Amino acid sequence: MQDALIFDFDGTIADTFTPATNILAKDFSKWGDRFRKTQTIQDLRSMNITEIVQTIPGGWWKFTYLLLKAKKKIKKMMKQGEIEPYPGIIYTLRTLHDQGHQMFIVTSNEKNVVENFLRHYNLDDIFTTIASSSLFNKGKVIAKVCQKYNLSTKNTFYIGDEIRDILASRQANLPIISVTYGYNSEEGLKRYRPQELVKKPTQLLKIFKNEGC
């Protein structure tokens, strides 16, 4: 059988990173000199969530506020068709699907938001299911998808852009392929030793070339 592929959504398929940083940048200037002088967006991209929270005056409360604010704005932008897929991802997803890979999405975004995005870009026919998780239970949701669809952990890969995706895949006992063009930087991802690192979506085609029967 061909490998099964489970994709993250934000920062992996949809470029929500660019608008998210623009939204948050407006708040960064309000956090005081301690933050502005010591951190940049690139610094934050190398950190996990706990490390990011420790840089923010207000801690988890402020982080939650910013997260919800960004998600609300991005949801509105998606409805208006202002969020685009990463260059090369549509071709990559279509090619992988045509090669016979069974494909899924597990995301912290809302299912209906993802469905609308996929429909807009004519990608709604290639994923077996879309499953939503909270920020911190993605590993459990990935495991449930594997169990429901009888996916072998030896032939199923999770593909995501964040450090927490690496941790979630390990919790579900799956190999992880990390993309470096999303929320976490290559430097940050390397610290957690994913099985593969790719810098652009089309490199996934080389990894899964001639896989399966």
How are the SSEs ordered, and which strands pair?
Elements: E1 4-7, H1 17-28, H2 33-38, H3 41-45, H4 49-55, H5 59-79, H6 89-98, E2 103-107, H7 111-120, E3 130-132, H8 138-148, E4 156-160, H9 163-171, E5 176-179, H10 186-190, E6 196-198, H11 203-207
Parallel strand pairs: 1-2, 1-4, 2-3, 4-5, 5-6
Helix pairs in contact: 1-5, 8-9
Task: Please explain how this structure is put together.
With 213 residues, this protein is α/β, with parallel strands linked by helices. It is 47% helix and 11% strand. The protein contains 11 helices and 6 strands. The chain has helices at 17-28, 33-38, 41-45, 49-55, 59-79, 89-98, 111-120, 138-148, 163-171, 186-190, 203-207; strands spanning 4-7, 103-107, 130-132, 156-160, 176-179, 196-198. Helix 1 packs across helix 5 (59-79). The chain is globular, with a radius of gyration of 17 Å.
Which descriptors would you attach to this protein?
6 strands; single chain; globular
Number of DSSP strands? 6
Which outline best applies? globular
Major sheet size, sense and barrel closure: 6 strands, parallel
Strand order of the largest sheet: 3-2-1-4-5-6
**How would you spell out the order of helices and strands?**
EHHHHHHEHEHEHEHEH
